[in-house]
Amino acid sequence: MKLPFALILVALSLTGCMVSYTLVPAAEESLVGGDELVVKPAIAWNALPVNYGQTKWDETWTRNGPLLDTVSFVGGLPDGQTLLKQKKKDDQKVPVFKADMTPQDLVSMMEASYRVRGITVFEIESVDPADFLGGKGLKVHYKYAPNDGMAKKGVAVARIVDEKLYVIKLEGVSSHYFDASTPEFDQIVASARLK
Amino acid sequence: MVRRVMPVTAILLLALAGCAAPKQQTSVGYVPPAGNHKVVVMRPDIAVDVLTVGGLLERREDWTITARDNVLASLQAQQAKRGGQTQIAITRESAGGEDATVIALNQLHQAVGQSVMVHKFSPIGALPTKKDVFDWTLGELAVQYGAQSGYDYAFFLYARDSFSSGGRAALQAVGALGCIVGVCVIPPGGMQQAFASLVELKTGKLVWFNHVLSSTGDIRTQAGADALVEKLLEGMNPESQAKKKKKA
Amino acid sequence: MRGSRRQFMLGVGGCAACMSGLTNARVLPTDLEALIPAGYKPADADERGIWQSIEQIEESIQTSPQLLQAPAMHAYIRSIIERLVGRPTPDLRLYLMRNSSFNASMFPSGMMIVHTGLMARVRNEAQLAAVLGHEAGHYFRKHSIDQYRSIRGKAAAMAWLSTATSVGGGAYAAAGYGGAGNWIYAASAINAAVTMSVFQFSRTHEAEADAYGISLMSRCGYSPYAASQVWNQLIEERKASAAYRDKRYKDRSKSVLSTHPPTEDRMQDLADTAEFLSARNEQAVFDGRAEWLAAVEPHRAMLLDEQVRVNDPGASLYLIESLAQDGWTGLLRYNEGEIYRLRGEAGDQEKAAAAYAAAAAMPDAPPEAWRSHGYALLKAGKAEDGRVALNRYLEMNPSAKDAGLVRFTLAQ
Questions:
Q1: What is the value of ipTM here, to two decimals?
Q2: Which residue in B89, B188, B96, B99 sits closest to B150, CA to CA?
Q3: Tens-digit pLDDT profile for residues C47-96
Q4: Are C67 and C97 in contact (CB under 8 A)?
Q5: Nearest CA of chain A to the CA of C39: how many Å?
Q6: CATH superfamily assigned to domain C328-411
Q7: Per-residue pLDDT tens over the stretch A19-35
Q8: Domain harbouring A119, CATH code
Q9: Reduced to 3 states, what is the DSSP secondary structure of residue C208?
Q10: Does residue B28 lie within any of the structural domains?
Q11: Does C5 touch chain A (CB under 8 A)?
């Protein structure tokens, strides 16, 4: 049984062991998920504090709070690494990223990162080619239902460049929040470049 | 050496004793509804638990029903003072609109309400882009509901209260004594937490939000429920808004 | 359907025949009478509080995206329950939920949840009846209420932060701040979950539920061995999962799928009771394999997909291979391929490719098998064959969700 999330946050703040959200300024370039991927959002965002279990190539922003909307980045995951940190003894594993993965493998890997967290209702809506980082990557539209909380929609753009994986993804509550941030997501993807 | 065993909530309560009370939040340019307007009070999400000696929370049905009735009565009294027409939706059906829309709207409000709680009422949850800004919305779903039901505003209320069983109160007393000899175990005695929000259905925006967290207060009594509702709704009154303007 | 309080009206008579002579089983089926009679209402404050929380959970289940709408399967399962308890059960609310774990839960208010993970694993109707009968045993003997009371008695200041084995905790978490009605928490907390974890129920409770369940089954002519078969299958699956991980098989009670190894005594009890009952029964026993296969057939592809996508290769291969005992099909070969593809160890690419090729040679290969086959061929450098396969995929499923990307791949 978990204590209400809000209470835990407030309590932890008093022990000073959590870093808070930081500002991502509008109309400025920002390095995300490491030191290679650069994006330029049109509006200001809030960067989430680093999460336990996050890899160093992961970064997430939010506008209204992560329960409602997030934009996440994978900034150059190398061949042989996994999207999520997992323990060797875990029963259910996210597949390891390999630079020679087919588009189908990439989609399966991204889907698995949800399934291993217990999400059972996950649907791919479409997979199409898309321009990203100066070449052709793939764009996946999906939706899923977390076991608690509201149904969410997502869109992810991914491409393998020099054997490393780059992903930008928008997720939001299906009602209002996903659609509200879609234009900004498109802007961020269009602005993305490698240093 | 003093050995302390402090459940998380105890830490919270002790710290809050030293903190300023959380402010309520309103959207920029908020004007409390006055005159002719139709407000629907969504079926409040209220529950009362008892804290057992072992530290478990058990739902108490009788307390919960009493608390719901008390809070609804307080709301009715409050709204009567305010003018306009208030419909208190005892059941989901009496909220009007389509059933599926109402269910989805309540779910969305829970998610948005939790977000407001975390990001506006906790120091480390603060979102830099929302500093001095309060602009959460329930979006098109709320507008849709407004069109379906004919209401102008929707009011949501969430409350959880818990109380010690007799055994726990005894344990607390013993624990407090123990602090003197260096073994401090202070189980929390139970706690009240509530939030309320007002949504403008024309736009879907949350125009007003307030939150109460305290270790006293008892919504099982009518007086306690009145006190909670009053604390929660204080900023919604035209009079208190006027007072604030005077101070500024 | 509003989640108002209903009574689960049931009265089940004990086994008519005397059980004299069966001395080694710890709990005799005839020792058990239903503590939940017809027209039951919650007896005290504990129960009333729990029922109220469950109402909220039930409300959320009714609109949950995990709710599986499958009228024929729903009717089939309900008919089994009614056969077991010997009468119609109009007040039982049955919900099929999409969850890959092996679980079924019966709530004190008369609500039953069956996971798709259970549907994926039972092999015949008798096995399904064994699980449902076992659940009924927990329910009728009020084990979940007992368990709750015993937990409540334990003094632990931090108890309310502990895992979802505490009933109050589960109900609170479910109906409280974390989102009204999280049925997953509730199902593992309040319930009579089908796990052999001693962590959740005492040995006495499990023995009672076993005995009760078997007596119900046997009365209806189901093979009483089905109960121990189900447990054995689960254990073998967990061992296969662990073997792949190269770790010693042991219980981790947080995962419903990780069952606690049954004690020798308990398995012995099950076997003894089964033997005794089958010796007494002159009638032929019924395992209902054909009936079950017919009922589950329309859902097979979805159930396999759900299992394979959680990427627990040891367990999934065990499942596929046990289904393949009846003969390999295109669907099974395709899923076999997917398991290897997702596992991605040395040599798995080749194994996956071989499985897809086998699938493509079978008449019932799903369109996705052709897609995977095509990509595998492309990866192996067989560009022309790969194109043919991918085109076949698009022909079979022109409105495929990833048609855009496949066409793009073909155009390279």
A1: 0.84
A2: B96
A3: 666 566 667 677 778 878 889 999 999 999 999 988 887 777 777 889 99
A4: yes
A5: 32
A6: Tetratricopeptide repeat domain (1.25.40.10)
A7: 589 999 999 999 999 88
A8: 3.40.1000.10
A9: helix
A10: yes
A11: no
